[in-house]
């Protein structure tokens, strides 16, 4: 079981220079591919392309397949970046049931809430009654309610305190262990490498490198591209200014 992307290229209509790509990668079931890059690198457009939801002015070329058949957006589910994707007028359980309509099997909201480490009582709450961490878990529960085996998770730790962010990453590890294939888009490289198997690095829409997580170690000497090393060192510095010493720069 694998999701394969070959030479994905996104170009503004009437322009010759691509905004993004060409990008190629392969994601196996039970694996996680991380996608990182600076702001405006093209990460959200990649997610839009997978779901055939690109803005009308952007053209898509390349091949996207699931087990060698054309990729259907219905095979995947997106956990969006913004908690504003939740319906402010519906309690959590009702929203879970809506998403479960795509799922052939009956979905038990309480079981699903437990899966994302929320109490059954959370099902009766409206979005404005949820903390940031609870809201992100509800977004993940909606994503899982679809029953999709392939998940695109966009910035799950944004704005969360470190403990809750770590718990969410742990949840993604569990999903991976259950056989889900996960594309994880995040600026939080330090946490991303706790769950990812490989990391694709974008700079201004270009795939500068796809690196195994083992390369993100020390000062990043195992990373091939200077942009990847700079990204890694900047993240380490933000997390813990004492981790980089002048002597590591070789
Ligand atoms: N509808 C659009 N029309 C034209 N250009 C667009 C459109 N949407 C995005 N872009 C451009 O495509 C590039 C990639 O944008 P994208 O939103 O995918 O970046 P990103 O990596 O997700 O950034 P961030 O981390 O800040 O969310 C940017 O230069 C952006 O200005």
UniProtKB/TrEMBL annotation:
**Is Iron among the key words of this record?**
no
Membrane topology term: Peripheral membrane protein
* Cell membrane listed as a keyword: yes
**InterPro entries from the UniProt entry:** AAA+_ATPase (IPR003593), ABC_Ni/Peptide_Import (IPR050388), ABC_transporter-like_ATP-bd (IPR003439), ABC_transporter-like_CS (IPR017871), P-loop_NTPase (IPR027417)
Mention any one GO cellular component term assigned to this protein in its UniProt record. Answer: plasma membrane
**Compartments in which it is found:** Cell inner membrane
Q: Which Pfam families match?
A: ABC_tran
Entry keyword set: ATP-binding, Cell inner membrane, Cell membrane, Membrane, Nucleotide-binding, Translocase, Transport
Q: What are the GO MF terms of this UniProt record? A: ATP binding; ATP hydrolysis activity
Q: Which residues form the ABC transporter domain?
A: 3-229
Q: Which family does the entry's similarity section mention?
A: Belongs to the ABC transporter superfamily.
Task: Enumerate the PANTHER family for this protein.
Answer: ATPASE AAA-TYPE CORE DOMAIN-CONTAINING PROTEIN, OLIGOPEPTIDE TRANSPORT ATP-BINDING PROTEIN APPD
Q: What is this protein called?
A: ABC transporter domain-containing protein
Query: Which species does this protein come from?
Result: Terasakiispira papahanaumokuakeensis
